[in-house]
C-alpha cells in the first residue's frame, strides 16, 4: 500500500540536508525512503537587512522580513556598491530605525559596506549604551559596546580607511569579546563585558537618537544580526571581484615570492567560500628557492662575538649607511674620503645622525600617516622660517627666543671645521 509520513522538530542547516526514513513491519521487513532538502546559503537570517535598492522614497526597507523598516531623513539615493545605496552629507542626514527590542540582542554583529573621506562620523549606533560602528577622528574604524556601568569596550583598526574606496566592515560581539573585520580580515579585537540596553534609539548615519556625530559618505548593504558571525560567514560577504582585487594587491606586495603559493579561485558567478577558494604552499618551488637562495660571507675580527650579533651589527651599519646616502643628496654633501682616520670618524658620526633622524621620522609617521616618508617630512619642515628656542636656566627660569632658521650657514660652518 501507500504510506504517508511527515517530520517535525528538527533543524535544517544551510546546504544539503539528507533525511532517511526506515519503516519496519512485524515480520521485521524494512523499507527505506530518502529525501534531500537543500537550504541555500543566504544572508536573510539577519535581524535587519538594508540593501538600499528602493531608488526613491523615504523608507529603507528591511529585507530580512522582520519588519524593521527605517525612515530616511535627508539622505539621498545614489549608486551603491551593489545596485543603489544611500549618501549621507555629514550635516543632518540619517535613517531612524526606532528602538525595536529585536535589535537589542545579547550577542550582536553589524555588517556594512561604506565609502568615505570622513574623519569623524557614526555609521550605526544603538543609544544609549548598546553598540556602535564609527569612523574615528583619525579615519580609523571602531566597533564598540557599553556595559551597565557605562564602560566602553572597543576594537579599533590600526590604520585608516577614509580613502574614498568601498570597504566592508563587520563588528562582532560574542558576549565576551568585540572583534572588528575590515575587508574580510580581522584587524582588531578586545575583551568585553556584558552589553547593556536602555530606552533610546537606533540610527544609521548618526549617534542613535542623539543629534550629533553625523556620517559623511556612502552606505550600502547594512545588516544587523542577533548572533556573533563566524569568520566563514563574514568571508561569504565577499564577492569574486573583491577576492581578485585583494589577491592582486598581495601579489604586488609579495613580488617573486607570490609564485610559491598555489591558488584556486571561484569561477565567475560562484560564491567565495571554503569550497571555491583554496590556497596551498607549493613545496617543490619552495625547495627550489632554498637551493637557489643567495648567501652572504661576512668576515670580521670580532672572534669573541656570537655570529648572530655580528650579523645584526652589520645590518645596522648598512641601514645607517643607507640613511646617510639618502640624506647626503638633500644636504649637497661632497663625497667623504677615508684616507684620514678623522674623516672616517666624521663619516660615521654624520651617518649615525642621519640614521637617527630618518628612523625617528619614520616611526612617528608610522602611527599617524603610514604613507608619509621621512624625506617628505623633511621637505615640509624645510619651509619653516622661524622657530622658538626654549632654554631652561640654572636659576629655574625659562627663556624663549624666537629665531629665524639659517640651517645652511650653520651647516657649512659645522662642515668646514671638521678638521
Automatic annotation (TrEMBL):
Coiled coil regions, renumbered to chain: none
Keyword Transcription found: no
Occurrences of domain LamG-like jellyroll fold (ranges): 106-232
Protein name according to UniProt: LamG-like jellyroll fold domain-containing protein
Family matches, as InterPro entries: ConA-like_dom_sf, Ig-like_fold, LamG-like, Laminin_G, RNaseH-like_sf
Keywords recorded for this protein, A-Z: Disulfide bond, Signal
SMART domains linked to this entry: LamG, LamGL
Organism: Candidatus Brocadia fulgida
This protein's record includes keyword Disulfide bond: yes
Domain spans labelled Laminin G: 106-227
Amino acid at each position: 500500500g501507500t504510506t504517508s509520513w511527515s517530520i517535525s522538530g528538527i533543524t535544517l542547516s544551510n546546504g544539503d540536508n539528507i533525511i532517511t526514513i526506515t519503516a519496519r513491519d512485524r515480520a521485521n521487513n524494512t523499507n527505506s525512503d530518502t529525501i534531500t532538502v537543500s537550504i541555500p546559503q543566504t544572508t536573510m537570517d539577519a535581524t535587519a537587512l538594508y540593501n538600499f535598492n528602493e531608488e526613491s522614497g523615504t523608507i529603507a526597507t528591511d529585507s530580512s522580513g522582520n519588519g524593521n523598516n527605517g525612515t530616511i531623513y535627508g539622505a539621498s539615493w545614489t549608486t551603491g556598491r551593489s545596485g543603489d545605496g544611500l549618501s549621507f552629507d555629514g550635516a543632518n542626514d540619517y535613517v531612524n530605525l526606532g528602538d525595536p527590542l529585536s535589535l537589542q540582542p545579547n550577542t550582536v554583529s553589524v555588517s556594512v559596506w561604506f565609502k568615505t573621506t570622513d574623519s569623524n562620523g557614526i555609521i550605526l549606533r544603538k543609544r544609549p549604551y548598546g553598540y556602535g560602528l564609527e569612523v574615528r577622528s583619525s579615519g580609523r574604524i571602531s566597533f564598540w559596546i557599553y556595559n551597565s556601568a557605562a564602560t566602553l569596550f572597543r576594537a579599533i583598526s590600526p590604520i585608516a580607511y577614509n580613502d574614498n574606496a568601498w570597504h566592508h566592515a563587520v563588528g562582532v560581539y560574542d558576549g565576551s569579546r568585540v572583534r572588528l573585520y575590515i575587508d574580510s580580515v580581522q584587524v582588531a579585537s578586545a575583551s568585553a563585558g556584558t552589553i547593556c540596553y536602555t530606552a533610546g534609539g537606533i540610527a544609521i548615519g548618526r549617534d542613535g537618537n542623539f543629534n550629533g556625530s553625523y556620517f559623511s559618505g556612502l552606505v550600502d548593504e547594512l545588516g544587523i544580526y542577533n548572533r556573533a558571525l563566524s569568520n566563514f560567514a563574514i568571508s561569504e560577504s565577499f564577492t569574486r571581484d573583491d577576492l581578485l582585487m585583494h589577491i592582486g594587491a598581495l601579489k604586488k606586495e609579495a613580488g617573486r615570492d607570490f609564485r610559491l603559493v598555489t591558488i584556486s579561485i571561484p569561477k565567475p558567478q560562484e560564491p567565495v567560500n571554503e569550497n571555491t577558494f583554496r590556497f596551498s604552499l607549493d613545496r617543490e618551488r619552495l625547495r627550489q628557492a632554498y637551493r637557489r637562495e643567495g648567501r652572504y660571507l661576512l668576515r670580521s675580527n670580532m672572534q669573541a662575538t656570537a655570529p648572530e650579533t655580528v650579523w645584526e651589527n652589520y645590518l645596522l651599519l648598512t641601514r645607517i649607511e643607507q640613511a646617510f646616502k639618502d640624506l647626503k643628496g638633500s644636504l649637497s654633501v661632497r663625497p667623504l674620503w677615508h684616507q684620514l682616520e678623522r674623516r672616517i670618524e666624521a663619516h660615521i658620526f654624520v651617518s649615525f645622525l642621519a640614521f637617527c633622524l630618518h628612523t625617528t621620522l619614520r616611526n612617528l609617521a608610522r602611527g599617524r600617516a603610514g604613507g608619509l616618508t621621512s624625506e617628505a617630512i623633511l621637505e615640509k619642515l624645510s619651509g619653516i622660517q622661524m622657530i622658538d628656542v626654549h632654554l631652561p636656566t640654572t636659576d629655574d627660569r625659562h627663556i624663549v627666543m624666537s629665531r629665524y632658521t639659517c640651517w645652511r650657514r650653520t651647516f657649512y660652518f659645522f662642515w668646514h671645521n671638521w678638521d
